[in-house]
User: What shape does this take?
Amino acid sequence: MEKDNLITVTSPLLPDPDELNTLLREIWASKWITNNGQFHQQLETELCRYLKVPYISLFTNGTLPLLTALQALRISGEVITTPYSFVATTHSIWWNGLKPVFVDIDPTNCGIDPDKIEAAITPRTTAILPVHCYGKPCDGKRIQQIADKYGLKVIYDAAHAFGVEQDGQSILNWGDMSTLSFHATKVFNTAEGGALIIHDEATKKRIDYLKNFGFESETEVVAPGINGKMDEIRSAIGLINLRHVDQAIHARQQAALRYREALRPVKGIHFFDDMPGVRHNYSYFPIFVDAEQYGMTRDQLYEKLRNHNIYSRRYFYPLISSFDTYKALPSAAPDNLPNATRIANQVICLPMHHQLSDSDLDRIINLIAQPHTT
Ligand code: T4K
Assistant: This one.
């Protein structure tokens, strides 16, 4: 029997090869292929405008901006964070020689639960590193109030939150800094890439030094920097993709609406609706399987979809706190993280991208709507 065509959890926005070719020819002619080239500068300018942020510094992936933000803000001691994210979030804390302290999540947005932050603060705490998980804004107001009360820095891992706005304002302007990922699997991609959102010119300068080994000039190194620079080829990919990203977000929104309409009557399948006043980017479509109500466990549904050539993902299972490096930390105990533990065992991120056809969506929906079939 012939298998149905493969549907993956995501599919990258790809630049038109002819358009890319034109830019590649320009790069070839200039012979300038990295180190703050013309396309790099242009992409920074265009992204500031699109994202409504004052300063941006491009990076070669979404992990290095996290590492660099912690360095730039001279964070020390303990950093409060969420276990419900991609491992890069906590790894960035660890790589800076800092101690991650896990706090449980709020199941209504899968972000860190502000009600539980204060209990985790110690004299060694210097920062909070929340994640706008799936691009859903955290409770930024409460987080900032706590940070101000205790004199803590806030760095948002906004890897999923490209273009997300609340009440007409970019959520990327929250906190002390925010980071983005432009990985192939993201709403906006440069193949690999990322960025740091900065609020003032002096810090932007410092970040630009830090991502270039700390060089201020040919002979002066002002900080122990790293190599985090984005090259001209990826910047060119970004410039082209930026012209098509609104269309891609619109297509994702249509897919989300269809999922919601079809899955709302299915007992035991829960999902998020849009938040009032928020411009979402529909970067992921997580569903949460209540096995008792649904009549099938999350993993059974995950396998069933796989058997039908539909590759969903269980973002974010297992929890970061359960990995060997972190599981001995007192804050990693599952008892300390009841919501994150439950949600990680219920979640499936369904295929979500700009090229899902109606028949792809129907195939996925029909399989989920009939829990008793194999
Ligand atoms: N913070 C957060 C909250 C993050 O989610 C991430 C990354 C980061 C920080 C770090 O940013 P980066 O340093 O990565 O820029 C993916 C991504 O590798 C990762 O970027 C992402 N988060 C994470 C949530 O997901 P995998 O292991 O699931 O990717 P992979 O290779 O299995 O791809 C998933 C599916 O996407 C494939 O089944 C098919 C499709 N795909 C993938 C690639 C790479 C394509 O169609 N084309 C492609 O080129 O981790």
User: Anything to note?
Assistant: The chain has two domains: 17-241, 245-369. Residues 245-369 form a domain with the Aspartate Aminotransferase, domain 1 fold (CATH 3.90.1150.10). Residues 8-12, 61-63, 85-86, 88-89, 131, 157, 159-160, 181, 183-185, 194, 311, 313, 315 surround T4K (CB under 6 Å).
